[in-house]
Amino acid sequence: MIDSGIGGATVCKQIRQTVNGCDYMYIVDNANFPYGNKDKKDLIRIANDCVELANKLCNSLACIVIACNTLTAIAIDWLRQRYPYITFVGTEPAVKQATEYSAGNILVATTYASARSDRLKKRFDGEFIKFVAFPELASMIENDAHEKDISQYIENVANELTFNFDCIVLGCTHFVHVKHIFERIFVKQVFDGNKGVASRVRSIVGKCNEWSCGVEIVLTKPDEYKLLQLQRLLGI
Ligand code: DGL
Question: What is the value of pTM for the model shown?
């Protein structure tokens, strides 16, 4: 699993609850955090570096999960072309679930880079699908900002919106950590794509060795505090 920070932990937890007995490596690219304000060229170079690192560190890779909506939106097509022999699982916003739930507008909350991505616009085309960037939110979550400040920030972005919406899709894995805040502020249904990622992984790896199911955390920049934060979030 690859992410810029703690967002990937929400994906990792869901995968570990769904798939039995795999060994996991979670590459936390904290050296390049945040991804959401970087351009396409940088994100492709970063994605390539992370995949090279995964290839170097893992000797039998069943798949690489891009546990990050931004990297999926910007780089997964490029990665699939560059590494045709690797199975990549991307993290996509759960727009399909949201359209089954509602016929009205859907707010998809993302990073700045995802909100501008051509891939997402093409994949989830429709006037009722509203991509909205929350540019500072991933950093606030990564840096353990106070819940009150996170709520205030989300409300500030929402106050600028010029449309109504029926439900929300979290299009950034960091935002899943504060799903309860979105639910509390908007009192609306909030979806995330993590269950979809986990079932895709289960369909790829099937049932494997029941006994080993550890997570090795690899930081791209040493940071004791980050490691402790991740261990706490993953319950390891
Ligand atoms: N967790 C990432 C995502 O899902 C990105 C956060 C960031 O590095 O900006 O989009």
Answer: 0.96
What is the location of CATH 3.40.50.1860 in the chain? 2-91+195-234, 95-192
Among the listed residues 12, 50, 167, 172, the single catalytic one is 172
Distance 33 CA to ligand 1 centre (A): 8
Domain 95-192 CATH assignment equals 3.50.30.10: no
Topology at the third CATH level for domain 2-91+195-234? Rossmann fold (3.40.50)
The atom number, within ligand 1, closest to the CA of 3 reads: 1
The answer, yes or no, to whether residue 78 has pLDDT greater than 90, is yes
pLDDT digits (tens, 9 = 90+) for 35-57: 999 999 999 999 999 999 999 99
Residue closest via CA to ligand 1's atom 9 equals 36
Contact between 172 and 106 (Cβ < 8 Å):
no
- Ligand 1 contacts CB of residue 7 (under 6 A): yes
DSSP string, 90-137: -----HHHHHHH-SS-EEEEE-HHHHT-HHHHHHT--TTEEEEE-TTH
